[in-house]
Amino acid sequence: xxxxxxxxxxxxxxxxxxxxxxxxxxxxxxxxxxxxTGAHAAEQAAPAAKSAAAHSAPASAAKSSxxxxxxxxxxxxxxxxxxxxxxxxxxxxxxxxxxxxxxxPRLIVPGMKLTLGAKASGSAEAAPSKAAPKAKAxxxxxxxxxxxADSAASESNGSGWATPVExxxxxxxxxxxxxxxxxxxxxxxxFQAASGTSVRAIGQGTVVSAGWSxxxxxxxVIQHSDGMYSQYAHLSSLEVSAGxxxxxxxxxxxxxxxxxSTGPHLxxxxxxxxSYGSDxxxxxYLRSHGVSI
Length: 293
Hints:
3-stranded antiparallel sheet; 2 domains; Glucose Permease (Domain IIA); 8-stranded antiparallel sheet; 19% strand; single chain; alpha+beta
């Protein structure tokens, strides 16, 4: 595992994140009272009560089955949906929480409150006319997210290798000297990338680690078929987990400024081992695999 706190000298400064929460409502059905007018009246009232109880049961069950989940570092919708066994997968989870997540289903941050369970079906039972437009509005965003993932995977070169970001622009070169780095030099290459920029695996491989790593913030480390490792740091969100197989050009997360960072960018390394201190020239490595940069 990468050593903690080795990338950049530690700086202090609190970071505040806003937290949004969504609530659900329910409906109450009043039943008529049964007067003591004899067995005939009781027989007429019983079917009506039974029918009303059956009609109200689905909404009540849906309300009781819903629960709240708080997003933590390293989470992404597909991972949460799988861990929490959400029926309908990340698409259902996003549809139920679109008002919290926003237009980009890939951009979630620690502290967000997500509703798990039958929120959408419960709303549809109580008020079908209101639930339908919301589901219709969510569809384009889901289709756009899927299209983005597919196009990212197809942008690798013919050999299956790709740049870590589209239209790469290196802002800090490998081995640049300076007191900002604990090693005395820059151990990777920094790429210009605004927060939320798609970060891609440079080639096929297996995810060794994905999560928080001290000064690197949220990072992903991938082992490739030639035995080398690539590292992607300061991410705002992760979309892969340890043990997962990825392909060249596949989106693995979004850029950000987590950890010890002076601003949004992608810190990218190539290593002979999974840990800090085994770095090699990342640009030369990419070029050796036919990637133009």
